[in-house]
Amino acid sequence: MIDEILEFNKKFVKEQKYEKYITNKYPDKKIAIVSCMDTRLIELIPAALGLKNGDMKIIKNAGGVISHPFGSAMRSLIIGIYELEVKEVMIIGHTDCGTLNLDSKLVMKHMTERGISREQLNMLEYCGIDFNKWIGGFSNTNTAIRQTVDLVRNHPLIPEDVNVQGFIIDSVTGELHVV
Fold this sequence. Notes:
- This protein is an alpha/beta fold.
- It has seven helices and five strands.
- It has helices spanning about 1-15, 40-50, 70-85, 105-115, 120-125, 130-135, 140-155; strands at about 30-35, 55-60, 90-95, 165-170, 175-179.
- A hairpin with a 6-residue loop joins strand 4 (about 165-170) and strand 5 (about 175-179).
- It is globular.
- It starts with a helix and ends with a strand.
């Protein structure tokens, strides 16, 4: 698949198809969106919100939640706010999320089936990684989004003038619900 993508990319550049996407690093709408990496949301979120290329920063991860106050998603938000003029943050979960009720033990089983040794997993746990918390999912999407909103709003490095709100988007229709 990567070879096909690289071939397509050569043609894309040669034919200058990139021109309609040219913008700068500052989001025109001054907004950052934290959302799930789910494939259904790649085009659905911008379309359902009336946003286009250049309007927003999008931070994607499994579940659309921020699980660590100093992890990469939070780092991205902080840089967006202080260096890229972000003024508002939308935390957007979605219906039928693959992280909902994700069983960490099943994920670890799949890891061992693909060659990760039990010793490697034990070493990570010995070093302080709580696999159940780190790789597991959440049991309620509303609660997970609410917790992420609270984490961002109350983070010591997020200024009070940044508007942070939570939502759940229907992964089929794009209908947005406030959390």
